[in-house]
Structure formats: structure tokens, C-alpha cells
Amino acid sequence: MTIKIYHNPKCGTSRNTLALIKNSGDEPEVIEYLNNPPSKAELKQLIADMGDGVRAAIRVKEATYTELNMQDDCLSDDALIDLMLAHPILINRPIVVTQLGTKLCRPSELVLDILPNPQLGAFSKEDGEQVVDERGKRLV
Does 52 fall in a domain? Predict the structure, then answer.
């Protein structure tokens, strides 16, 4: 199975997650979801596979979230998903799919829980935080 990452290249967490995947020797399928959003069925399946519910998959810090009054508890999951598809910036990222599971990788080191291969060497995030040591051992 190919690893998939729903990626936003402008997001530091997404870039760090992609780099951690590559540090395991895997070359994932990169889906830039802002340009190529998932179908409704795909998004529903991703959310179900993550197991945290629809609201956990929404970027609440986006202005669009407030503008669309998405904090309203009366909105159904289906309505929230429709809004996420109409405004893909509202889909939280990065979402990674591997043979070991599907996970919203915030923070980026959560991807280590579902990577099938170990880290090949040291890794530090863009901000300098060391996540993996030179032996490939997770530090955080």
C-alpha cells in the first residue's frame, strides 16, 4: 500500500509530516487537497478511519469557519462535510493514510505512530525541535 498524505505545502506541520515520511524511506502519494479535494465519500471515509469525528477534521482557526457559523452545534455532520468540500481550506491537515491506519498528524510527529518503516536517521522540525535521533529513535 502506498502512503498518502493530504498536504498543504504552505503549512509547516504538513511539510514536517511529509519530511518524516520521507525520512522513513517511503515516497508517499502527495495529494494537495486545496487543488484536488477529496470526494464527499473519500472525506467521509477519512474522517471515519481517523475515528475522531467530523469536528476534529475541521480547521477552526480559519476565518471561513466563523464566517460560515460552523461552530453552531445544530449543523449536522453532513452539512459540515459539505462546507468543508466547498471550502477545502477548512479541512484540517495533514491527514496521512498508511497500512497501519489513518491519522490527522497534528503535531507532525504523530505520523510516526502509523509509518510502517522506521526512521532512517535524525530528524528535526523546521523550527529546530529534534524529533528523531541519529539512530532513528523517536525523542518526543
Answer: yes
Residue-wise pLDDT tens digits, 70-117: 999 999 999 999 999 999 999 999 999 999 999 999 999 999 999 999
Instruction: Find the CATH number of the domain harbouring 22.
Output: 3.40.30.10
Q: For residues 72 and 92, give the distance between their C-alpha atoms in angstroms, rounded to a whole number.
A: 18
Overall number of domains in the chain: 1
Does a cis peptide bond (omega within 30 degrees of 0) precede residue 107? Answer: yes
Q: What is the CA 60 to chain-centroid distance, rounded? A: 15
Task: Please compute, for residue 17, the number of CA atoms within 13 A of its CA located in the half-sphere on the CB side.
Answer: 31
Active-site residue, from 4, 11, 55, 85:
11
* Whether 74 is catalytic: no
Asked whether residue 38 is domain-assigned, the answer is: yes
**pTM across the whole model:** 0.95
